[in-house]
Structure formats: structure tokens, C-alpha cells
Amino acid sequence: MGSLETPTTTETNGSATPAVTSNGGDHKPPVTANGAPLSSTDSRIVMAQESEATKKRRASMLPLEVGTRVMCRWRDGKYHPVKVIERRKMHFGGPNDYEYYVHYTEFNRRLDEWVKLEQLDLDSVETVVDEKVEDKVTSLKMTRHQKRKIDETHVEGHEELDAASLREHEEFTKVKNIATIELGRYEIETWYFSPFPPEYNDCLKLYFCEFCLNFMKRKEQLQRHMRKCDLKHPPGDEIYRSGTLSMFEVDGKKNKVYGQNLCYLAKLFLDHKTLYYDVDLFLFYVLCECDDRGCHMVGYFSKEKHSEESYNLACILTLPPYQRKGYGKFLIAFSYELSKKEGKVGTPERPLSDLGLLSYRGYWTRVLLDILKKHKGNISIKFVSDITIPLAAMHLFNQLLELSDMTAIKAEDILTTLQSLELIQYRKGQHVICADPKVLDRHLKAAGRGGLEVDVSKLIWTPYKEQG
């Protein structure tokens, strides 16, 4: 359910066929010292001896140590390099019968999982574990097609951690504590660790009420809860409805338990998100698909009630069953429509992850280039008299401010976006924005589709500072 596509497993006679074997190359029949082929009887003896030696060598490796690197058969039927992160003894088995929690070094941590010994190719075990070789834990090996899908999935949690904090975070969260959740009609595989209360440590699956987000250990508990829960939508005010889409604003101070439960849920799908227990300072904007059974959450973003840095978004997530439908782009666009209503410019909370920057850069590109196409690059100039700027940059600076007023995008974000597209040029002694239609069309095509549109006429909302 992640942003990585899972290749289809090839099957032969009903069993998965690995594409990579451990020994590689063709098998050569054993020969005598002078090169003559062995008799069939001698061959069987040699092969039996080799088999016994192999068994002894493999047995001496077990159980595998944490940190061991080995090849593991993944769900695509192929072998991929992994690192053993943790191990646990199986309830019914011998002294060397363990399950291993592995990290696929080619992929994001969201794909880490428990595997059985038979999935590991013990012939590929690295005898010396080199801990100096760091896994690129947060990197993704993606095709260009997969990268284009990133901004339609979810924005990764904020990577606000320095190197030491990152190591501590990864050590604390290295093993997923909850494997799956049930939310509404979906059973969803989780991606990351989330610090649920200690009494849920022994649960591999949790059951969420999709309306109030209370979570339970057993299906029977959820069924009893649903008979008593009178909510059919998130608590809070419905501020937007267009067709079957609704957006609810939930005040963390007024709905503290809901806000905390939403953070627990989000952490299962965001790696480096900071979990805020003090949700009083935040507003949560929960996007729902509505039908005759109620309003079903598809994603959300949060923002601080008062941000000195002009942050209009703190965290954003589209739940896995609803990804690649344009909801992530919709949430980003919605955060800027709120900024316009407030009469402010906005920017997402920093620092952004690589994937977060990719999502926002796509949004900024589409919005800015659409305006430049309509205005043919002729943005009206608003003179600024209270800032000292080199004369050559004054024209550009005022153009950036005008674009910022029109879009609610911070001028710095506009500048970095246009620079990344190489649309700022130096002509006749001053910096100008290049608005060649062919160049704009090429960049717009590369930026991809814009996703669902926010119908501003359906937004009924009062900025927080004016409430009450």
C-alpha cells in the first residue's frame, strides 16, 4: 500500500519462483583429481558429504546475529539484500528457531518486516558485519514513474532531527509495534512504529472507530463501541462540502482525545513525525468522503493556531487506501486557500523531507506557471520603499511580492521554485522572470496533473483569531 509498487510474483505450479539464486552460474558435475568424471556412486557420496558440510556450516551461523546482512526472498519472489534489525524466539521450536525483523536496504523503512528463516539465503550471509556501512534508510530506489506518484501519496514526516537524534529515533522505533489496523471497511498494513500506550504493546492489530478514532484490541470491542458511538463524522465544524467531499476543522483543545488518537494513527504512516501530546495548540483539518453511512476520513493536515514563522501546515497525510487519487494535492491547495482567507502568506513547516519538498515543488510549479501563462509574464509591480534592495533585483523582488499576494505562497518559496526551473534570468541590467510559453508548457507537463480542485465558493470558514 506504499508509494513503491510491488512487482507481481511469478508462479510456477503454484509456488513463487525466485529470480535470483544463491550460488549463481551453472552447476558443474564433480570430477576426480585428474579431471575424470566421478562414477554415479562416488558422485552421490561426494554430494552427501557436501550437503552435510553445508548443513553444519549453516547450523553454526544460527541464530543470526542482529546486524547480519543476508539476501531475503521478498513478496515479489526475488532475493533482496537485508540487514537483520531484531530477532525473536519462536514459541514452538528448537533453540535456534527464530524469526527475524529485517530492513530491505534498497527500500524505505516502511517495508521492514518479520520474516521466517526459510526466506533467508544462508549461503549469502556476510561473515563479518561491518557496522560502519550505513544503510540509506530514508532513501527510495524509484523509477521515474514512481517518483511522479509521490506527491499523490503522502508527504513524509518532518526530518527535524540531527544525526545523533536520528540514530536515537531509529533505535527506538526500529521495529513496527503494530502490523495492521482496521479502519472502516479497510484493513491497512502499517509502515512505521507509533508510541501507543504500554497496554497495547502485545497487539499486532488494532481496531479504530473511523469516526471518533478510539482504538481497541479486539473486533468484539469495536463492534460494541460502534453500537454506542453516535458520531458519523469527525468532531468539529464542517467548513467545506463539494459533492461527496467534506472538510472538518477540529480544535485540538476542544477535542483533545480525538487529536491525540489522530496523531497515534498518523505516526503509523509517517516516519520522522514528532508526536505532539499537547494538541491544544493545533487545528486539524480532516478530509472525508461522505455517503449514507457517514463521513469517512481519507486524510488530514494540521497547523498551529499561531505560528510566528507563517507556517500554514505542520503535518499532512493521505491514508494508504486513498492514495494516488489527488487528495494530497488537494490538502496542500486547501492549506493555501485558508491562508488567502486569513490575508497571509503561508509555507509548510520546515525542514521538509525530500519527498515533502517534491510534493510542494510540484504544487508551487503548477500554480505559479499557470499565472505566468495567463499574464504572459507581465505581473503588475507593487513598489516597495522600506527595503533596501540592489537596483538590478528591485524589479524581480516586486514581481515576487505580487505573485506572493496572488497565491499566498511565501516569496522565498516562489524564488527557489523559479530558480530550480531556471526561469530567472539577467537581462539588460536587471533580473527578470522568463515567461516563454513553450518553456512554461514544458515545465507544466513535467509537473504532472494538478489533482482535485478546491471550490472556494464552498468554503465557509472563519480564521481562528476571529473566532469567539
UniProtKB/TrEMBL annotation:
Residues 173-463 form the MYST-type HAT domain. GO terms for cellular component: chromatin; nucleus. It holds the Pfam family zf-MYST. It comes from the Eukaryota. GO terms for biological process: regulation of transcription by RNA polymerase II. It catalyses: L-lysyl-[protein] + acetyl-CoA = N(6)-acetyl-L-lysyl-[protein] + CoA + H(+). It is an enzyme of class 2 (transferase). Keywords: Acetylation, Activator, Acyltransferase, Chromatin regulator, Metal-binding, Nucleus, Transcription, Transcription regulation, Transferase, Zinc, Zinc-finger. The active site is at E349. This is Histone acetyltransferase. It comes from Citrus x changshan-huyou.
